[in-house]
UniProtKB/TrEMBL annotation:
Gene3D superfamilies: Glycosyl transferase family 10, C-terminal domain (3.40.50.11660)
GO cellular component terms given for this protein: Golgi cisterna membrane
Record note on quaternary structure: Homodimer.
Tree of life domain: Eukaryota
Organism: Culter alburnus (Topmouth culter)
GO biological process assignments: lipid metabolic process
Fucosyltransferase C-terminal domain residues: 208-381
Entry keyword Cell membrane: no
Catalytic activity: alpha-D-galactosyl-(1->3)-beta-D-galactosyl-(1->4)-N-acetyl-beta-D-glucosaminyl-(1->3)-beta-D-galactosyl-(1->4)-beta-D-glucosyl-(1<->1')-ceramide + GDP-beta-L-fucose = a neolactoside IV(3)-alpha-Gal,III(3)-alpha-Fuc-nLc4Cer + GDP + H(+); an N-acetyl-alpha-neuraminyl-(2->3)-beta-D-galactosyl-(1->4)-N-acetyl-beta-D-glucosaminyl derivative + GDP-beta-L-fucose = an alpha-Neu5Ac-(2->3)-beta-D-Gal-(1->4)-[alpha-L-Fuc-(1->3)]-beta-D-GlcNAc derivative + GDP + H(+); an alpha-L-Fuc-(1->2)-beta-D-Gal-(1->4)-beta-D-GlcNAc derivative + GDP-beta-L-fucose = an alpha-L-Fuc-(1->2)-beta-D-Gal-(1->4)-[alpha-L-Fuc-(1->3)]-beta-D-GlcNAc derivative + GDP + H(+); a beta-D-galactosyl-(1->4)-N-acetyl-beta-D-glucosaminyl derivative + GDP-beta-L-fucose = a beta-D-galactosyl-(1->4)-[alpha-L-fucosyl-(1->3)]-N-acetyl-beta-D-glucosaminyl derivative + GDP + H(+)
Name of the protein: Fucosyltransferase
Annotated Fucosyltransferase N-terminal domain residues: 87-192
Key word ATP-binding present: no
Membrane topology field: Single-pass type II membrane protein
């Protein structure tokens, strides 16, 4: 072998070793002098892979038909332990109407990870979010948090009652950072229920056996409500089976389920008329296999939540008499009646887990949204 050839080989080896030294220094230097991706070109795939057995480097082959990327920029799947490690604390400052709900795992219920739900007020200074239920706030705010609020902490105004049944308090102005309610324009909207895609089993739906025509269960009866006026007219033209404390015929939970499912139609009459306010009166009817006859916001608002053929709106008829005539027609025509269940071929009604689901959705929102936010005028937004 000639001296010139030996010199050339030594030069190639020296360059190769120098490049390996650079990679070694990049990987092991503690001060992170080289924190950018190192890109090296090699003529052979084997040489590249041999050198780059360390992480965090990108290797590009000279071969124009082949590229190999080696990088740790793709996140590794989290283990179950890592997923359950909480990094966001949500404090339930007051239980809604004094009633506790289960503080389960948001991860198993909603696939929301990193949440720690608690009612321990001793963790106030560490809580990222504080849930405050509107209907339980004292008029003078005496039961509200007294300590100065940490800068990172968000207070969440939480309410599922309609404006008619929620008192305004001028002291709440500029006090909250976020809102959570049934309203779609809330920061964290949580409806009473929703329709979800049906499984193959759920698509094979059988309408429950019907023994009654029209039913209504009501306890909070106010003669001044729109629903009361409408009911008093409707019963002049069609029989309605009534239950509830107002009619001196209370029913327990199981009796309620059996009753509603045995009725062809159920009067899902809301106690007040407000945008997006569609309570369990609607969704229980859908879930239990009856056709809801609704009083509430306009039909267009309902159709943002459920299919148009899943319900009957009283506003579709000039008077209670015309509605009664339509219900009697459906009672006599099985094909027309069954048309109101075609939505069950695609969807099922799922009920919100009151309180617990709010807390988990609030946690999820706080984890994803770190920006500054203040509800400037709660009263104008909710009651305006």
């Amino acid at each position: 072998m000639s001296d010139s050839w030996k010199t050339a080989v030594k030069a190639v080896i020296a360059l190769f070793l120098l490049e390996c030294f650079i990679l070694y220094a990049y990987h092991f230097l503690p001060l992170g002098y080289f924190n950018q991706e190192v890109q090296i070109k090699y003529s052979r795939k084997e040489s590249c892979l041999h050198v780059l057995k360390m992480q965090n480097y990108m290797c590009t082959l000279n071969n124009s038909m082949e590229e190999l990327l080696m990088t740790t920029s793709v996140p590794k799947p989290l283990t179950s332990t890592e997923k359950e490690e909480p990094d966001t604390t949500v404090l339930i400052w007051m239980w809604p109407f004094g009633t506790r709900f289960d503080l389960g795992l948001c991860s198993s219920a909603f696939n929301i990870h990193g949440c720690h739900l608690t009612d321990d007020r001793g963790l106030f200074n560490q809580a990222h979010g504080v849930m405050i239920h509107h209907r339980d706030i004292s008029w003078d705010l005496s039961n509200m948090p007294k300590l100065p609020r940490p800068a990172f902490q968000k207070w969440i105004w939480w309410n599922m009652e309609s404006p008619t049944h929620s008192g305004q308090n001028p002291l709440l102005k500029d006090l909250f950072n976020l809102t959570s309610s049934y309203r779609r324009d809330s920061d964290i909207p949580v409806p009473y229920s929703w329709l979800s895609d049906a499984t193959e089993v759920e698509k094979n739906y059988t309408i429950p056996k019907k023994e009654k025509l029209v039913c209504w269960v009501v306890s909070n009866y106010n003669p001044n409500y729109k629903r009361s006026h409408y009911f008093n007219e409707l019963v002049k033209y069609i029989n309605v089976e009534t239950h509830g404390r107002h009619f001196n015929s209370p029913v327990n939970h199981d009796e309620y389920l059996n009753l509603v499912s045995s009725c062809k139609f159920y009067l899902s009459f809301e106690n007040s008329i407000h945008r997006d306010y569609m309570s369990e009166k609607l969704f229980n009817s859908l879930a239990l296999g009856t056709v809801p006859v609704v009083i509430g916001p306009p039909r267009e608002n309902y159709e943002e939540y459920i299919p148009s053929e899943a319900f009957i709106h009283v506003d579709d008829f000039p008077s209670p008499k015309e509605l009664a005539d339509h219900l009697k027609l459906l009672d006599q025509n099985e094909d027309l009646y069954r048309h109101y269940f075609t939505w069950r071929e695609h969807f099922v009604s799922k009920r919100t887990k009151f309180g617990f689901e709010h807390a988990c959705r609030i946690c999820e929102h706080i984890r994803k949204n770190k920006h500054y936010r203040v509800v400037k005028d709660l009263n104008s937004w909710y009651w305006g």
